[in-house]
Amino acid sequence: MSSGQLRRQTSKDYISEESCAECSVSGEVAPRQDVLCPRCREMFKLLEKAKAVVNGAGALSLLETEETRINNLGKQNRLMSRKINVPTAILAPYRLLILFRIIVLGLYHAWRIKNRNEDAMCLWGISVVCEIWFSFSWLLEQLPKLNPTPNSELPAIDVFITAADPDKESPLVTANTALSVLAADYPVEKLTCYISDDAGSLQTFEAIAEVSSFAALWVPFCRKHDVEPRGPESYFNLKKDPYWNKIRPDFVKDRRKMKREYDEFKVRINALREAVRRRSYAYNALEERKVLPEAPPPATWMADACHWPATWINPLPGHRYDDHPPVVQVMLSSPSNESIPTGNKEDGRSVPSMDLTGVNMRLPLMVYIAREKRPGFEDHKKAGALNALARASAIISNGPFLLNLDYDNYVHDSLAFREGICYMLDGSERVCFVQYPLRLDGVDPSDRYANHNNALFDANMRALDGIQGPFNLGSRCLFRRMAVYGFDPPEASLQRTQQLNASDDGPSDQKIPSTYSKRFGNSTSLIDSIPVAEFQSRPVYDRPQETVADPRGPVTLPSVAEALSVISCSYEDKTQWGERVGWIYGSAKEDVATGYRMHNQGWRSVYCAPTERDFFRSAAAPINLADRLNQILRRATGSVEMFFSHRNPLLVSPNMRALQRLAYLNHSANPFTSVFLTVYCFLPAFCLLSGQFIVQSISATFLAYVLALTVTLCILTLLEIKWSDTQFVDWWRNEQMRVIGGTSAHLGALLQGPLRVLTGIEPSPTAKKSSASADDEEFAHLYAVRWTWLMVPPITIMALNLIAVAIGVSRTIQSSSPEWSEFLGGLFFSFWVMIHLHPFAKGLMGRRGKTPTVVFVWSGLVAITISLLWLTLKSPSGAQEIGGSITFP
Ligand SMILES: O=c1ccn([C@@H]2O[C@H](COP(=O)(O)OP(=O)(O)O[C@H]3O[C@H](CO)[C@@H](O)[C@H](O)[C@H]3O)[C@@H](O)[C@H]2O)c(=O)[nH]1
């Protein structure tokens, strides 16, 4: 199939006109080549050629032939995406307000520095430093939002699903993700689904085998009745009427049959754990010896009594539990395949795909991959798994685009792949990846811990889309394979190739593919699959047929053997995988680091987040307070690591735009705000305890500044809510989590980050609550109270503020000359802190008041210690009267 046909397919239903969206010229020629769409650019070149054949007889016929060619080209290559600007009525006041607020902030800080609080220099000094940092931090966050794009109304492959541990990540959830990919609306011969199983677990393998059988029913059902979403769990759990808009009379019968089949499928998947356990050596050993052998790892037998190849029968000394040999197994063959070759085992399953009426229907290719794990080799977690998938897929299917999904991120809208791929094919050869937002199922209705994170997904990422593009967020990201391989964007690549050709020396790894082995490793099949750099700079439709057409032939045994070799542990030795090639190693945030490398090379990314539809959703979310704090801790640790690494955004190359650089700087420096924020949250308590305030007197000037800063912030927020199409409640939850995370997990990250840079210890993964594993009570996990040391600072802040309010009230009431303004200032300030910590307090209470006693003991002790410390510091003589009646020794 030609690229033109592919484009026409992907643009189906979206483009009804032929005019150029970039230059707004229909069939005419605009003067500047750099603002033209590919079609107009061709027209422009054509006129230039015609002019060159001055008055010659050939001019007219040349013009006619070229015109016909371009018209055909134009028809095939209509633009499929367009950028919609934020209305000026919102953007202009938004930018003006930012400017105005910067001026007010400048004046406010000057005023604050000039007007010292001589009575409480300590309070004054700390508050001024904190406020200056907040302004700096606000600037870092606000400036990249100067040029947002609201929504992209747009019309997507080698899909990677990563799974790590079937005990923590339900195989049923992984199976649902795989089914949603297989049922996506994309040409089956163009779609390959890879499931990476880092545990090499037979349980996951057999679940995927079940998927391949069930897909033969599920995919035809989805296509026949056009059902959405195409993950069966989410489809059968839909709250809306399933029969709405369905006109085929056999729908009711088919749906009932599918529901029965899916229930049986679930039972089979859920029974696998026990079934596999019974077949494992470890289980037998446990049964016999009543102890689980620590090492060597257990050998396991498959259902047909064959040895499961991802376990050793005779393990070597030193093998750990999760060590295993590599496995590549083609579970569903591509349409052109006659037989299914397997790596390590001979019993390939071929599943006939029958639709509900008994007619054969083709299914996409599906491959199970477990990369090798051995003692002495670092596995690099998810980044390592993705790099192994990138190499194996290059040999098996070599799709020019890669889409990666966490085990729980299923395709919610069947058009998701088509939409994303349109951005890639639109002549936007500089686009390295298209990022989709994360939308969650199973979050409590009030979204207590801001799990939906709409401020990030709908405001910050959209804002970056107006600069150089959103960050890579780890999952739901469609990559250009060449960008993953670490190549420069087309123009830079072309320039470099030309320079190299001219000078004919230098590090020519883009010119002489023989040096590729140092970069990509020794697999000749892998190196042969990399198209030569020359085609990088040409539009997709202008490249030789073989670089854009389906490169997949039948998956042969030699290619499976080669795929096995590139997923061995030692393959990456002395190569650039994990550094200049593939996903970056050594970072808790391999995603952001990988996207950062690409932006630094001059690539741009695109955000694909239409408001009216969710392309991907996640079936699991950390809705428990402790889990959420640990998730924030892990992410913030990645940010701190980035700050202290050679990827510090202050050191970027000139290829990265200034505002994009600021956005990365804000991302990596953000946890430092926690120090100032924590100190600032203690200030109201200190104010109330001491009877002082952060300014000497609450004057009209001070109030005017506070009012101006608050009002501008409110209007900015309203405008931001408007252009990002979010709700006020999303913004407010985000603000609360910013304070909760800032006073807990971010502080932890500041301790853990540098330690990790020095020691390289990996943080533990995030625990998530899967909606597919139903609890007796809905959102029961939300109310479970679990202790983590990250809770100590916010508990202390709350306790101290409460004690201070009590002391402040008592002193003011009993005093003969009460300092009302200082008291009210401190009270308001304290209230501000407490309402931000409200979700945290609720999280501590649980549902039935089952808060661990340690929480109260800790909070009481720390709060009393700090109060006494403060009073002692205030009164060196050792005795001071507070409020006339309360005295401290
Ligand atoms: O050794 C590993 C560890 C994890 N995974 C998979 O990676 C995905 C993410 O897991 P993990 O990183 O433990 O969970 P989270 O903390 O939830 O990950 C968030 O944060 C990561 C780092 O920023 C991103 O890559 C993820 O997309 C994002 O969901 C899951 O599908 C895992 O199965 C592996 O394949 N191998």
Account of the protein in words:
- Mean pLDDT is 77; it is low at 1-37, 52-78, 336-355, 505-512, 532-552, 771-775 and 876-889.
- Strand 1, helix 6 and strand 2 (192-197) form a beta-alpha-beta unit.
- Helices cover 49% and strands 7% of the residues.
- It has 889 residues and is an alpha/beta fold.
- The strands form 4 sheets. An 8-stranded mixed sheet has the order 3-4-2-1-5-9-7-10, sandwiched between helices. It has a 3-stranded mixed sheet with strand order 6-11-8. It has a two-stranded antiparallel ribbon with strand order 12-13.
- The longest helix is centred in the N-terminal third of the chain and has 29 residues, at 251-279.
- Residues 162-164, 169, 196, 198, 381-382, 385, 406-407, 474-475, 589, 591, 631, 634, 765-766 line the site of uridine-5'-diphosphate-glucose.
- It is found in: Endomembrane system.
- Mn(2+) binds at residues 382, 406.
What's the topology here?
Elements: H1 3-10, H2 38-52, H3 58-76, H4 88-114, H5 121-142, E1 158-163, H6 171-182, E2 192-197, H7 202-225, H8 232-236, H9 251-279, H10 281-289, E3 327-332, E4 365-370, H11 381-396, E5 401-406, E6 409-411, H12 416-425, E7 431-435, E8 439-440, H13 454-465, E9 477-480, H14 481-484, H15 490-503, H16 516-520, H17 524-528, H18 545-548, H19 557-566, H20 590-600, E10 604-607, E11 616-618, E12 620-621, H21 625-643, H22 658-669, H23 673-690, H24 700-724, H25 728-742, H26 745-759, E13 769-770, H27 780-783, H28 792-814, H29 820-836, H30 838-845, H31 853-874, E14 880-882, E15 886-888
Parallel strand pairs: 1-2, 1-5, 2-4, 7-10, 8-11
Antiparallel strand pairs: 3-4, 5-9, 6-11, 7-9, 12-13, 14-15
Helix pairs in contact: 2-3, 4-5, 4-24, 5-23, 6-7, 7-9, 11-19, 13-24, 21-22, 21-26, 23-28, 23-29, 28-29, 28-31
